[in-house]
Amino acid sequence: MSGSRIHILRLFKDESISGAKVDEETFEVDRLGFQEMLEYLSHHEVDYVVTLNTSRLWRSDIVKVLVHRELKKYGVDIRSIEQPQYSIHKKDPSDFLINGLMELLDQYQRLEISLKLGRGRNKKSQQGGYVGGNVALGYKVEKGKKSLVIDERQAKTVQRVFDLKEAYPSWTLTQLAEQLNEDGHRTKQGKKFSKVQVKRILDRKAFYCGLYRYGEITTNGKHQAIL
């Protein structure tokens, strides 16, 4: 980066960050795009991670702390287009106040939208219907309808994950991912599996058995079970 000019090395994208969680076992941000970015940073010299707004990197204080921790590890700072003064190293009180207020406003707007949509989604989820969001591996959204149907190729991958877990209970997530890749299985994006993606599949066992969960609601889903 020289002056105001930025040389873009690579673009990373998450399908969604609204539901980003922290992996309690590894204390890492459970987001595929973010993990791919960290892998890239570990092998390349990078000065900044460029984003439209810091809300594209985190939407909770705990995720913010973890993002800062990982970027500092690689000596990388943040450049935000909408927050040009933002830096993970800056201690200026005025910058802290401005950035904090912007983040609070963003949270307020998301909460307001969530409350408006919540009633309709709760009603549909109580009936076991798909209410939107990321589609789990093994399924696809039926064209013209907001319902899930099985993707036969992906379903075989899901079944293989649980077969391996049952056959080799002591295997780590990394070992499971390596075996999947060796068997020729691929993600929705056609990429090799990582331990984060394998854990995500295992965590959805109830869903793959036919249950549907939305918030605190758990009911029999309208989708066909894979397991």
UniProtKB/TrEMBL annotation:
InterPro entries: DNA_bind_recomb_sf (IPR038109), DNA_bind_recombinase_dom (IPR011109), Resolv_N (IPR006119), Resolvase-like_N_sf (IPR036162), SSR_resolvase (IPR050639). PROSITE patterns: RECOMBINASE_DNA_BIND (PS51737). SMART domains: Resolvase (SM00857). It comes from the Bacteria. Residues 136-227 form the Recombinase domain. Pfam families: Recombinase (PF07508), Resolvase (PF00239). Gene3D superfamilies: Putative Large Serine Recombinase, Chain B, Domain 2, Resolvase, N-terminal catalytic domain. SUPFAM superfamilies: Resolvase-like. This is Resolvase. It comes from Virgibacillus kapii.
